[in-house]
Design brief:
Elements lengths: L34 H10 L7 H15 L5 E5 L10 E5 L8 E8 L8 H11 L10 E7 L5 H9 L4 E8 L7 E8 L1 H8 L2 E13 L2 E10 L2 E3 L10
Parallel strand pairs: 3-4, 4-5
Antiparallel strand pairs: 1-2, 2-3, 5-6, 7-8, 8-9
Helix pairs in contact: 1-2
Length: 235
Protein backbone atom coordinates (compact mmCIF):
# COMPACT_ATOMS: atom_id res chain seq x y z
CA UNK A 1 0.00 0.00 0.00
CA UNK A 2 1.61 3.21 -1.07
CA UNK A 3 2.39 5.70 1.61
CA UNK A 4 0.64 9.04 1.40
CA UNK A 5 2.92 12.03 1.48
CA UNK A 6 3.04 13.87 4.76
CA UNK A 7 1.29 17.20 4.76
CA UNK A 8 3.49 20.08 5.71
CA UNK A 9 2.14 22.06 8.58
CA UNK A 10 2.31 25.80 8.28
CA UNK A 11 4.02 27.51 11.19
CA UNK A 12 1.69 28.61 13.90
CA UNK A 13 1.28 32.36 14.30
CA UNK A 14 0.58 33.75 17.70
CA UNK A 15 -2.99 34.87 18.17
CA UNK A 16 -3.23 38.59 17.82
CA UNK A 17 -5.46 39.98 20.53
CA UNK A 18 -7.36 43.15 19.91
CA UNK A 19 -6.50 45.93 22.28
CA UNK A 20 -9.18 46.52 24.89
CA UNK A 21 -11.67 49.25 24.17
CA UNK A 22 -10.97 52.41 26.02
CA UNK A 23 -13.96 53.87 27.76
CA UNK A 24 -14.20 57.34 29.18
CA UNK A 25 -16.57 58.26 31.95
CA UNK A 26 -18.86 61.15 31.13
CA UNK A 27 -19.39 62.01 34.78
CA UNK A 28 -16.44 62.53 37.09
CA UNK A 29 -16.90 61.61 40.73
CA UNK A 30 -17.52 64.63 42.95
CA UNK A 31 -14.50 65.98 44.77
CA UNK A 32 -16.60 67.25 47.69
CA UNK A 33 -20.03 66.50 49.13
CA UNK A 34 -19.85 68.15 52.55
CA UNK A 35 -18.55 71.43 53.96
CA UNK A 36 -15.37 69.85 55.42
CA UNK A 37 -14.53 68.09 52.15
CA UNK A 38 -15.14 71.29 50.19
CA UNK A 39 -12.81 73.25 52.46
CA UNK A 40 -10.16 70.56 51.99
CA UNK A 41 -10.69 70.72 48.22
CA UNK A 42 -10.39 74.52 48.26
CA UNK A 43 -7.09 74.33 50.14
CA UNK A 44 -5.72 71.65 47.83
CA UNK A 45 -6.61 73.60 44.68
CA UNK A 46 -5.72 77.04 46.09
CA UNK A 47 -9.25 78.26 45.40
CA UNK A 48 -9.49 81.89 46.45
CA UNK A 49 -11.97 82.49 49.31
CA UNK A 50 -13.02 85.72 47.58
CA UNK A 51 -14.00 84.03 44.31
CA UNK A 52 -17.67 83.66 43.41
CA UNK A 53 -17.25 79.87 43.11
CA UNK A 54 -15.88 79.65 46.65
CA UNK A 55 -18.42 81.96 48.27
CA UNK A 56 -21.37 80.38 46.49
CA UNK A 57 -20.34 76.76 47.13
CA UNK A 58 -19.34 77.49 50.73
CA UNK A 59 -22.73 79.02 51.49
CA UNK A 60 -24.59 76.13 49.86
CA UNK A 61 -22.80 73.63 52.09
CA UNK A 62 -23.26 75.90 55.12
CA UNK A 63 -27.02 75.92 54.49
CA UNK A 64 -27.07 72.16 53.87
CA UNK A 65 -25.42 71.54 57.24
CA UNK A 66 -27.40 74.15 59.19
CA UNK A 67 -30.82 73.16 57.86
CA UNK A 68 -30.33 69.66 59.27
CA UNK A 69 -31.15 71.16 62.68
CA UNK A 70 -34.58 72.09 61.29
CA UNK A 71 -35.33 68.59 60.02
CA UNK A 72 -34.06 68.93 56.44
CA UNK A 73 -32.18 66.11 54.71
CA UNK A 74 -30.51 67.57 51.64
CA UNK A 75 -27.90 66.97 48.99
CA UNK A 76 -26.15 69.52 46.82
CA UNK A 77 -26.95 69.42 43.11
CA UNK A 78 -24.08 71.53 41.76
CA UNK A 79 -23.01 71.86 38.14
CA UNK A 80 -24.35 73.86 35.24
CA UNK A 81 -27.38 71.61 34.77
CA UNK A 82 -28.87 72.23 38.22
CA UNK A 83 -31.73 74.27 36.70
CA UNK A 84 -31.34 76.92 39.39
CA UNK A 85 -31.64 74.42 42.27
CA UNK A 86 -28.80 74.37 44.79
CA UNK A 87 -30.04 71.72 47.25
CA UNK A 88 -32.62 68.97 46.90
CA UNK A 89 -34.19 66.67 49.48
CA UNK A 90 -36.90 66.31 52.11
CA UNK A 91 -38.23 68.02 55.25
CA UNK A 92 -39.27 65.76 58.13
CA UNK A 93 -41.40 67.22 60.93
CA UNK A 94 -43.12 65.60 63.93
CA UNK A 95 -46.52 66.87 62.74
CA UNK A 96 -46.29 65.06 59.39
CA UNK A 97 -46.75 61.35 58.69
CA UNK A 98 -44.31 61.60 55.78
CA UNK A 99 -41.54 64.06 54.77
CA UNK A 100 -42.19 66.90 52.36
CA UNK A 101 -40.10 67.17 49.23
CA UNK A 102 -38.14 70.41 49.07
CA UNK A 103 -35.86 72.26 46.71
CA UNK A 104 -33.57 74.99 48.01
CA UNK A 105 -31.97 78.10 46.55
CA UNK A 106 -29.08 79.61 48.53
CA UNK A 107 -28.43 83.33 48.08
CA UNK A 108 -24.88 84.19 49.11
CA UNK A 109 -25.39 87.97 48.87
CA UNK A 110 -24.43 89.44 52.24
CA UNK A 111 -25.91 92.92 51.95
CA UNK A 112 -29.27 92.63 50.25
CA UNK A 113 -32.39 90.53 49.72
CA UNK A 114 -35.00 90.93 47.01
CA UNK A 115 -38.68 89.99 46.55
CA UNK A 116 -37.67 88.95 43.04
CA UNK A 117 -36.04 85.89 44.59
CA UNK A 118 -39.45 84.54 45.57
CA UNK A 119 -40.82 84.91 42.05
CA UNK A 120 -37.63 83.34 40.67
CA UNK A 121 -38.05 80.40 43.05
CA UNK A 122 -41.63 79.88 41.86
CA UNK A 123 -40.38 79.67 38.27
CA UNK A 124 -37.62 77.23 39.19
CA UNK A 125 -40.08 75.07 41.11
CA UNK A 126 -42.49 74.99 38.14
CA UNK A 127 -39.69 73.63 35.94
CA UNK A 128 -38.30 71.16 38.48
CA UNK A 129 -38.22 67.45 37.82
CA UNK A 130 -41.15 65.19 38.59
CA UNK A 131 -41.89 64.96 42.31
CA UNK A 132 -40.41 68.35 43.18
CA UNK A 133 -43.01 70.54 41.50
CA UNK A 134 -46.68 71.08 42.20
CA UNK A 135 -48.57 71.66 45.42
CA UNK A 136 -46.98 68.79 47.33
CA UNK A 137 -43.44 70.18 47.15
CA UNK A 138 -41.98 73.19 48.96
CA UNK A 139 -39.51 75.80 47.77
CA UNK A 140 -36.97 77.10 50.31
CA UNK A 141 -34.99 80.33 50.08
CA UNK A 142 -31.87 80.83 52.22
CA UNK A 143 -30.35 84.26 52.68
CA UNK A 144 -27.61 85.74 54.85
CA UNK A 145 -29.76 88.58 56.22
CA UNK A 146 -33.33 88.58 57.56
CA UNK A 147 -36.20 89.04 55.14
CA UNK A 148 -37.32 92.59 54.48
CA UNK A 149 -40.96 93.66 54.51
CA UNK A 150 -41.04 93.24 50.73
CA UNK A 151 -39.66 89.71 50.91
CA UNK A 152 -42.10 88.72 53.66
CA UNK A 153 -44.99 90.02 51.57
CA UNK A 154 -43.73 88.15 48.49
CA UNK A 155 -43.54 84.92 50.50
CA UNK A 156 -47.08 85.47 51.80
CA UNK A 157 -48.49 86.11 48.31
CA UNK A 158 -46.61 83.28 46.57
CA UNK A 159 -48.83 80.89 44.61
CA UNK A 160 -46.91 77.90 45.94
CA UNK A 161 -45.45 76.76 49.25
CA UNK A 162 -42.41 78.88 50.15
CA UNK A 163 -40.15 78.88 53.22
CA UNK A 164 -37.63 81.61 54.04
CA UNK A 165 -34.63 80.82 56.26
CA UNK A 166 -31.94 83.30 57.26
CA UNK A 167 -28.70 81.32 57.68
CA UNK A 168 -25.78 83.35 59.00
CA UNK A 169 -22.15 82.27 59.04
CA UNK A 170 -20.68 82.32 62.53
CA UNK A 171 -17.20 82.83 61.15
CA UNK A 172 -15.82 79.84 63.01
CA UNK A 173 -12.99 77.81 61.55
CA UNK A 174 -14.42 74.89 59.64
CA UNK A 175 -17.73 76.65 59.08
CA UNK A 176 -20.80 76.79 61.29
CA UNK A 177 -24.13 78.39 60.55
CA UNK A 178 -26.84 79.79 62.80
CA UNK A 179 -30.54 80.15 61.93
CA UNK A 180 -31.65 83.75 62.44
CA UNK A 181 -35.14 83.63 60.94
CA UNK A 182 -37.69 81.08 59.71
CA UNK A 183 -41.03 81.90 58.09
CA UNK A 184 -43.42 80.23 55.67
CA UNK A 185 -46.69 81.01 53.95
CA UNK A 186 -50.17 79.56 54.35
CA UNK A 187 -49.67 77.12 51.49
CA UNK A 188 -46.95 75.40 53.50
CA UNK A 189 -49.21 75.38 56.55
CA UNK A 190 -51.95 73.74 54.49
CA UNK A 191 -49.61 70.77 53.88
CA UNK A 192 -49.87 69.91 57.58
CA UNK A 193 -47.34 72.25 59.15
CA UNK A 194 -49.92 74.29 61.13
CA UNK A 195 -48.86 72.62 64.36
CA UNK A 196 -45.31 73.95 64.07
CA UNK A 197 -44.13 77.35 65.23
CA UNK A 198 -40.93 79.36 65.45
CA UNK A 199 -39.27 80.55 68.65
CA UNK A 200 -35.98 82.07 69.76
CA UNK A 201 -33.31 80.36 71.84
CA UNK A 202 -30.90 82.70 73.63
CA UNK A 203 -27.34 81.81 74.55
CA UNK A 204 -27.50 78.77 72.30
CA UNK A 205 -23.76 78.25 72.35
CA UNK A 206 -23.32 80.16 69.12
CA UNK A 207 -20.94 83.09 69.23
CA UNK A 208 -21.55 85.67 66.49
CA UNK A 209 -19.63 88.91 66.25
CA UNK A 210 -18.67 90.41 69.59
CA UNK A 211 -21.03 88.43 71.81
CA UNK A 212 -23.33 85.50 72.30
CA UNK A 213 -26.20 85.46 69.88
CA UNK A 214 -29.65 84.02 69.57
CA UNK A 215 -30.99 81.38 67.25
CA UNK A 216 -34.40 80.66 65.76
CA UNK A 217 -35.73 77.18 66.51
CA UNK A 218 -38.83 75.25 65.54
CA UNK A 219 -41.56 74.71 68.14
CA UNK A 220 -43.80 71.65 68.41
CA UNK A 221 -46.72 71.94 70.81
CA UNK A 222 -45.11 75.09 72.17
CA UNK A 223 -41.79 73.39 72.99
CA UNK A 224 -38.46 73.66 71.13
CA UNK A 225 -38.06 70.79 68.71
CA UNK A 226 -34.91 69.58 67.00
CA UNK A 227 -34.34 66.26 65.23
CA UNK A 228 -31.59 63.89 66.24
CA UNK A 229 -28.72 64.95 64.01
CA UNK A 230 -25.69 62.74 63.77
CA UNK A 231 -22.24 63.63 62.54
CA UNK A 232 -22.18 64.87 58.97
CA UNK A 233 -20.73 62.14 56.81
CA UNK A 234 -19.31 61.86 53.32
CA UNK A 235 -21.91 60.64 50.81
Amino acid sequence: MPLLPLLRRSPLHPLKRKPPLRTTSTTAPPTHTTLPTFLAHARATALSPTSTIYTGTYYEYLCLSTLRRLGFTLSRTGGRSDAGIDLLGTWSLPCLPYPLRVLVQCKAHADRVSPEWVRELEGVKAGAREGWRGEGAVGVLCGKVPATKGVREAVRRARTGVVWVCVEDCGEEGGRGVVRQVLWNERVGALGVEGMGVGVRYGAGVRVGAGWGKESVLLWNGMPWEPEVGEEKEV
